[in-house]
Amino acid sequence: xxxxxxxxxxxxxxxxxxxxxxxxxxxxxxxxxxxxxxxxxxxxxxxxxxxxxxxxxxxxxxxxxxxxxxxxxxxxxxxxxxxxxxxxxxxxxxxxxxxxxxxxxxxxxxxxxx
Amino acid sequence: xxxxxxxxxxxxxxxxxxxxxxxxxxxxxxxxxxxxxxxxxxxxxxxxxxxxxxxxxxxxxxxxxxxxxxxxxxxxxxxxxxxxxxxxxxxxxxxxxxxxxxxxxxxxxxxxxx
Lengths: 114, 114
What we know:
Order of helices and strands of chain A: EEEEEEEEEEE
Strand content of chain A: over 45%
Number of strands of chain A: 11
Strand content of chain B: over 45%
Mean pLDDT of chain B: 93
Radius of gyration of chain A: 14 Å
Distance between the termini of chain A: 41 Å
Largest sheet of chain B: 7 strands, mixed
Low-confidence stretches of chain A: none
Oligomer: heterodimer
Structural class of chain A: mainly beta
Mean pLDDT of chain A: 92
Shape of chain A: globular
């Protein structure tokens, strides 16, 4: 069965440090991959997505993610964390196998320390 | 381009009452998705409507229902409210044709059941 796994429900980084949020997926068909960010009491905002083509995808707010098929991963990174990056981040995968499916990971809450 | 809109922003009901939540998709999007985000439980898929038809539903009881109107807006109804229905309800829309399977989210409706 297809699934999305986000390692670490909580991640803390110091301001200015590298942000790395991990996402692994399992899919028997080529997936599309997404990262969303959710600030408190708000909806989900699309950060970036991979569909086809270049495997390194750049998104908003300085985030990027790399699709690694051999590792079935789509980790989210940002070189230097800002206080405003504190939020919850969701990885998602979509694919069509008979019917359209969109699966979310359980989320990673990012805390940025001053 | 206007994004996904949801109303009301907040809704307070008592146990046993009915709640109606509304969603307007992005112009041109024909698919609407409903999710429940209860505290600590991540995103739980509720319902998917496309072209006025219910296409799929998540593992929720029948008192969660909805519909999609000819203009593709949607309504989620929750009957016989229970305390555990308190959650943020998120609506998302997707373009059925020519898109990249991306779901775009509204700001959510916070339902509180007393």
